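Our consortium's second objective concerns turning raw sequence data into structural hypotheses that experimental partners can test. To show how far this objective has progressed, the report includes one record in full. It was chosen at random from the queue rather than selected for favorable results. The single chain below, 182 residues long, was entered without modification.
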Amino acid sequence: MSKVNKSVIIISFVFIYLSLLLISQDPDMFFTITSGKEIMSGNFYFNSHTNLPINIQQWLYAVFMYNFHKFGDLGDFMFVAIQNIILWIVSYIFIYSKTKDRFKAIIGPIILTLLSYTYMINIRPQIITMIFLVTELIILEEYKRTKKSFLLIFLIPIGILSANFHQAVYLYHLFIMIPYII
């Protein structure tokens, strides 16, 4: 493939991605931003009418979202784009390690993102969860291949970060580990 063709493909992808980003905002983002703002101000009693403490299961994500939102729509878009780029990188590493095919490793995550744009190009914590899950798979596969136990230490900070970014799906990490334990 020539450099011109590659450039056209990359520019086309960026254009499509940015177009989808503009139409894919989730109404929950405003709850997340408000939650982050309240957490940063030290207020954990911001339930609208009960004045009871509220447990924000994605509190760390809310704090990040609030800080990016300080830059307006550009900050919101950058937050989603950064997450997607990190997910593409870890997905590339995982797919390439399994297939040794650079084309599949590059194009696979991009096509899946575009096909599931309402889920992936969005301000929701599941993208961070996927980053942690794929990273966990990379570590577990490397451990399986090399039998180097020290690699398993990295699962601890991944688990802690994942629980604080998106607690609702923390059990997924345990489910992924089961085949490696058995």
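The partners drew two points from this record. The mean pLDDT is 82. The CA atoms of residues 83 and 128 lie 7 Å apart. Both points have been shared with the crystallography group to help prioritize constructs.
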